[in-house]
Specification:
22% strand, single chain, 2 domains, binds fe (iii) ion, alpha/beta, 6 helices, binds benzoic acid, five-stranded mixed sheet, Protocatechuate 3,4-Dioxygenase, subunit A
């Protein structure tokens, strides 16, 4: 084939996929064909490399199920998930920034009262997170639901633990009349993303750190406001500057204050150490 033949093949593929039945689908599919063809040309893709890539995609599909989302993980470590978040959330600077959902959110977490301990029965230093949910003018949003999830001290989410029968380290908290919320959990630790699948096997062929800094996930979906998917991160924790999924934002970093003993925000009198953190969520209007 000559260089001209290559170009003709691309043109013909673009013509075919340009027959998609909506303008948006045409744009998405012809853009994909154009970039895939350009990529193959740019790197001079060999047949062995093409086959290795196909087998990698096959394994990524085969290892995924209703609890494991290896394609999301692949998108996360390639920086694509965070890029899509940035493209779609040009929030007011006063609003809390969004970050990646990650592969471990579970729908339908139980409703939890103010101060509920979502870590019951799980080892770790008690942590209380308090704060408010407001709009960008500072008005309190009563009844806003904070869907919260985090990993345990082994870096494992409920979705990764097959024997988990009850909700584990996840719950839905509602704000009170004055927009305040309070959750009780355990101090999160930084953890490695799952490395036993095709994403891990690619990462081990690079110098990329496969860790995420300690964080807690939040999803707030309040009518009239843009859905906020975000995390909070502990100030000073490891991996903040090289999060494997590019998910950190300086606005999401908060102090975790260590107390030797004292009265916690839910009124519990501790004679042993506990930690408090404060984070005020600000929602972007629709
Ligand atoms: C998480 O924080 O749960 C997560 C996000 C992206 C990839 C792996 C884990
Ligand atoms: Fe996480």
């Amino acid at each position: 084939m000559t260089e001209t033949d290559f170009q003709d093949l691309t043109d013909e593929a673009l013509r075919r996929w340009g027959t998609a039945h909506t303008p948006r689908l045409q744009e998405l599919l012809t853009g994909l064909v154009r970039h895939l063809h350009d990529y193959a040309r740019e790197v001079n893709l060999t047949e062995d490399e093409w086959m290795a890539a196909i087998q990698w995609l096959t394994r990524t599909g085969q290892i995924s199920d209703d609890k494991r989302e290896e394609f999301i993980l692949a998108s996360d470590v390639l920086g694509l998930s965070m890029l899509v978040v940035q493209l779609n959330h040009d929030f007011d600077p006063a609003a809390t920034p969004a970050t990646v959902l990650g592969p471990f959110h579970i729908d339908g977490s139980p409703a939890a009262p103010y101060g509920f301990d979502m870590s019951e029965g799980i080892d770790g230093v008690p942590l209380f997170v308090t704060g408010t949910v407001t709009d960008i003018a500072g008005r309190a949003l009563p009844g806003a639901v904070l869907d919260v999830w985090q990993a345990d001290s082994d870096g494992l989410y409920e979705a990764q633990i097959s024997e988990a029968e009850e909700a584990r380290l996840r719950a839905k908290y509602e704000t009170r009349e004055d927009g305040t919320y309070c959750l009780r959990s355990v101090v999160p630790l930084g953890y490695s993303i799952p490395m036993d699948g095709p994403v891990g096997s690619l990462i081990t062929q690079t110098d990329i750190s496969h860790y995420r800094p300690a964080h807690i996930h939040f999803l707030i979906d309040e009518p009239g406001y843009r859905r906020l998917i975000t995390h909070i991160f502990e100030d000073g924790t490891r991996y903040l500057d090289n999060d494997v999924v590019f998910g950190t934002r300086k606005e999401l970093i908060t102090q975790f204050v260590h107390h030797a003993h004292g009265v916690a925000p839910d009124g519990t009198d501790f004679d042993s150490p506990y930690v408090t953190a404060e984070f005020n969520f600000v929602l972007q209007p629709e």
